[in-house]
Specification:
The protein has 10 helices and 5 strands. It is mostly helical. Helix 5 crosses helix 8. The longest helix is centred in the C-terminal third of the chain and has 20 residues. The radius of gyration is 25 Å and the shape is globular. The chain starts with a helix and ends in a 7-residue tail after the last helix.
Length: 294
């Protein structure tokens, strides 16, 4: 219907603007448009063209092209008892087609004198700090280069504060908070931002948990409302906790099976005193975290 179509238009415009909200993103759009269509503004023209698309247009195109005759279905049917997939051996290498560059010591690099002069400006120039009545500290800095707003947030909730035997509690808490407040399940809560063409990140580190949302300037009220709901009224539903725990256990097992993960876990375990305080959780500690702990 037209309401759904307008939501899709809004999401597409938002994602386009956010992806272009830096010099490299915009230059990539310009060069790609020129190379493929001989029109550097092709991308933005195509976005504007979406305003003229109707629901009838979509029905007509889908009925014409999304048919059984035009579809390709692949079914993976592993051999009985097979535990892995075998691939053909790669062809013998004929050697690199380019000679490696000569080695150069950093001390031999000629650095122009201008690069060694400290800047007379700081990223904090023009910033303003406000403390709200509820104690939250807000730092504001205005930059009108692009019609976007970057909203970052953090709180004192890191792995260093976890009780013994509950390694992973901080990150599990942060991930569960992303499942939304009471009255909104995880899908509906995250759809609030998806409809604006953006998403929310929130994760725990050693000393803090922090996140970020990039949005259009005109959507800032809705973004702040979603961030506020996530931080101040997390539901911590048991089914959300169980799902997050399973996702973390699965991700941990995959990571530990990789050479990098196994080496890093071993290094952190041996370099932490006592080893039980290693920041890397175990399946045992993750499965031991209950809703009351969160």
């Amino acid at each position: 219907d037209e309401t759904t179509l307008e939501k899709l238009r809004r999401r597409r415009r938002a994602r386009s603007t956010l992806s272009d909200a830096d010099p490299s993103g915009m230059s990539q759009r310009l060069s790609t448009g020129m190379a493929k269509f001989e029109d550097p503004f092709h991308h933005w023209n195509s976005i504007r063209a979406l305003d003229d698309v109707t629901a009838d247009d979509i029905r007509r195109v889908t009925s014409e092209y999304l048919t059984e005759e035009n579809s390709t279905v692949a079914v993976l049917d592993p051999l009985p008892g097979a535990t892995s997939v075998s691939f053909a051996e790669p062809a013998p290498s004929t050697g690199p087609d380019l000679s490696p560059p000569p080695a150069q010591s950093p001390s031999e690099v000629d650095i122009p004198p201008g690069l060694l002069v400290p800047s007379d400006r700081s990223v904090s120039d023009g910033s303003r700090t406000v403390r709200l009545d509820n104690g939250i500290l807000v730092i504001l800095r205005r930059d009108t280069s692009f019609p976007t707003v970057a909203t970052g947030f953090s709180c004192a909730m890191g792995s260093r504060m976890e009780p013994e035997g509950l390694t992973g509690l901080a990150d599990m808490t942060a991930r569960t908070m992303l499942c939304g407040p009471p009255g909104q399940d995880s899908a509906r809560f995250n759809a609030r931002l998806e409809e604006l063409g953006t998403s929310m990140d929130f994760s725990a580190a050693t000393d803090i948990a922090g996140g970020m949302v990039n949005s259009l300037a005109g959507d800032i009220d809705e973004v702040i409302a979603a961030v506020s709901d996530m931080l101040r009224e997390p539901a911590f539903r048991e089914d959300d906790i169980d799902r997050v725990r399973k996702e973390m256990v699965s991700g941990l097992e995959d990571w530990l099976r990789s050479p990098v993960g196994a080496a890093m876990a071993s290094f952190l375990g041996q370099s932490t005193d006592p080893p039980e305080r290693s920041p890397v959780p175990s399946v045992r500690t993750l499965e031991g975290i209950a809703g009351k702990d969160i």
